[in-house]
Request: fold
Amino acid sequence: MRYREISPEKLRWIYDPSQFRFDTTDDIPPLEGTIGQERALRSIDFGLGFDSQGFNIYMLGESGTGKTTTIKALLEKKAAEETIPDDWVYVYNFKDPDRPKALNLPPGLGIILQKDTDELVSMLRQEISKAFESKDYEKHKNKILEEYQEESKRLFSELEDEAAKQSFALRKTPTGVVIVPVKSGGEPLSQEEFDSLGSEMKKKIETLSKELQEKLDDVLRQIRETEKTIKEKLNRLERDVGLSSVRHLVDELKSKYREYPKLIEFFDDVKEDALNNLDDFKTPEETTTPVSFLKMAKPEPSFTRYKVNILVNNGDLRGAPVIIEPNPTYYNLFGRIEHKFQYGVALTDFTMIKGGAMHRANGGYLVVNALDLLKNIFAYDAVKRAIRNREIKIEDIWEQYRLISTVTLKPDPIPFNVKIILIGNPFLYYLLYNLDEEYKKLFKVKADFDNRMDRTEENIHKYAAFIATRCKEEALKPFDRTGVAKVVEYGTRLAEHQSKLSARFSDIADIIREANYWASKEQNKYVTGNHVEKAISEKIYRSNKIEEKIRELIVDGTLMVDTEGSVIGQVNGISVVDLGDYSFGKPSRITVKTFAGKSGVVNIEREAKMSGRIHNKGIMILSAYLGGKYAQDYPLSLSASLCFEQLYEEVEGDSATCTELFALLSSLSGLPVKQDISVTGSMNQMGEVQPVGGINEKIEGFFDVCRVKGLTGEQGVTIPEKNIKNLMLKNDVIEAVREGKFHIYPISTAEEGIEILTGVEAGKLTEEMTYPEGTINYLVDKKLREIAKKLKAEEKEKEVEIEKEVEERR
Reply:
């Protein structure tokens, strides 16, 4: 019997380099834009242009499809045409020091304001100190003090005269001024002398003393009032002197920043605070008194409250900001309030407020990796809160978890206006969309990047432009036509489809760089197709150690895989081993044993809990196919054990369904299966063969085993016919097929496959509802009928025995 084979021309799509209209990539202009992502680009354009709350963007796609590069290029172009956002600064809140005020200023004005306030403090210290050292101030001050001294002297002098007339005098004691009676010579009257006086004289002295004491109290009260008045005059004098120094300096700034009412209010607060703390600006008097170690020196006055803390400076921008935050922790996004330790105490002030990526991106765009954002505690919830409330708060997020609360600042929140772009994989997108109700309200734009594109002439030439761009940006050798053609073919291989190209440009870029390396080693002027093939083969060699070890085990017989002869109930299947950086096909022996019983098809892997759900589904489909195909007029009575021999890891997927069916049919029919033909393919209940993944790796995996064990010219594989479009096989496989040393058979039904494996016709159902004698279906049907008949006879015998036993008991 002759069977259909796939011609060598269909085993790989090859691009003719002569179709290119250039000699080398030096002749190609650099690539502009992104290749093959029209759907994603339209979504991004919509998301960036739609200015409404919640229309933030999630860019999803496989790693290496150019998401970050694309969004960075698009944002830089768009942001350059947009308005530069305001600067943001924090200033001291004189009315509520724990709540610093946030002020916005035109871009670049923040740094100017900071310099102006620093200069203001410096000028205030000079001017106020100079004013209080002036002779005019000393003259006015002395005049006020002299008035006080003269008034005090007059009051005491009048009291002393009146007391002298009454034989009394004023005396200073440690407790103050007192009235004492005196003798004629002016000496104070002693207690003994006073006791020796008569009662009338004593009474008179006491009465006079009381009257004079009252007058002394009046004098002291008048002096205190005078002191108060004098102090007020001195304060007024100091304020007037200070005001003369402060007013013109502050007024200059108020005039300069007259368009900003909040700044005018701040300058008024600065002026009032400076006038209320003039001592801080005076030059300290030198003292010769040493400071005791028990008494700390008076701290230097602080002028921090007059400073300006620049949170965001957009003076150097040329458009809206584009911030790509590589480490989106909470504090990196939202800023922090720093502290310094002094004498074991944590201190802070508004100048220690530091902004984050959200502040720098305000008025522009922020790009964050979604997985990194979710991995950082508090960050994701805080981002959602900022979008929802339209404000950015700087706060100590750990404060709510401390047992002891600490004093901290509560800065004014800043209005939030940022377009956030998350970048992540599809799994994370759908996880958030389905599990987080807020997410779908806040990230409404989905930009889905495909991992492959149509293989059109336009996209092929864009591939060439991509190669040219990489060469020019990274100073690589130019590629000639053959080199570009091989890179395009490699892109088709990655896409696993002859009419598609891969959009995983990070992998394409790696091959470009590696091909340049091999061209440099050979000192070639250009990178050719041979260098690209060398790069691909070397890349495989660096990663395929495990594949070679498995192949060695097969060759020496440790892993039992036959590539010659025929065996009943045994078929070679092919699985794909994915190591992450490299995938390869691994031949495996699948065996089936059938016997009379009603257990059905028993999957040994399933019983051993080494089988996945999809594989279990394939076994159920196989059972359904048998029942539908043969057991129409009799019950399907069968016990069969199915096993992947020497399998020590979990098996998953349904691509071995055809292999398992063929082994089962072989066991039932008694027809041996060719061991030089391996099988892959999924199957449905109708017996139609369905396409599978990893078809190139599977074919190449079995071919390599046959090659090292020796090609006989009879070896080959059966594959689903619908997988022909996915073939991008290596050159050595194609050459073997061309020379007739290896065969690839496309099958669309299970019956085609079993015919190839056994060399016996499957057989079609006749009008009498039977299969032609000698065909596979005839033999299988006959075996199943015999098993069913035998089991029915056994059941009847058991029924007779049971009836006899019942009769005997009666």
User: Anything to note?
Assistant: The first strand starts at residue 57 and ends at 60. Confidence is low (pLDDT under 50) at residues 286-295. DSSP finds 25 helices and 29 strands in the chain.
